[in-house]
Write the structure tokens for this entry.
Amino acid sequence: IQREYREYVLALDSIVRPDYLGLAAETNLIRTAAPDSVYQAVVTMTNAAAARLDAAGSATPRYVSVQVEVAWGRFQGGGYVGIARDLTDFPFIDVLGLSSYPYLAGFADPDSLPLDYYARLDAGHPLPLLVVEGGWTSLSLGGVVSSPATQARYIHRQAQLLDSARALAVFQLTFADLDLATLTLPPGSILPLFAHLGVVDS
């Protein structure tokens, strides 16, 4: 599997020639939630892929993404944790990817997000930042109360967070909401939590 991953990364880089190449997603969440052997496999395969890219002469900027709410300790019930371990374990990164879903981490109001919500992760590590996934639901879900107006306020607040962090870019993962009625979801699927992040409806 790791060999196929390395071959895929090389093929993607040489054929697509992306502006930025992400080698792993939400590494700090994997480290927090998965067995250590899984996390170590991610470290091994991404560093090996980066070495293969170097050997092939690739100059594509590389990143892994970290989960912003995990870095702030929001899911672990503690204080700010940071991303020092991620920066140590993935020394090949040229830019830092961010994944952020603050509505899932107890934030009820987008305006309550600290202005340094992104920038603090990069403190002392002058890496350019990219928001590569995330958003705010436009629909109330379980204990989360939201609306299209709240989502719009989040997009405005996110622009301030991006400016504060001098981020290079933000990527809107889903342009349209997902049409869940057309999907057969397994029991316990978490997809409904992310189905209304689009900036237009389904």
DSSP finds six helices and five strands in the chain. The two ends are 35 Å apart (CA to CA). The chain has a mean pLDDT of 95. Helices lie at 2-16, 27-33, 36-55, 68-71, 84-89, 148-165.
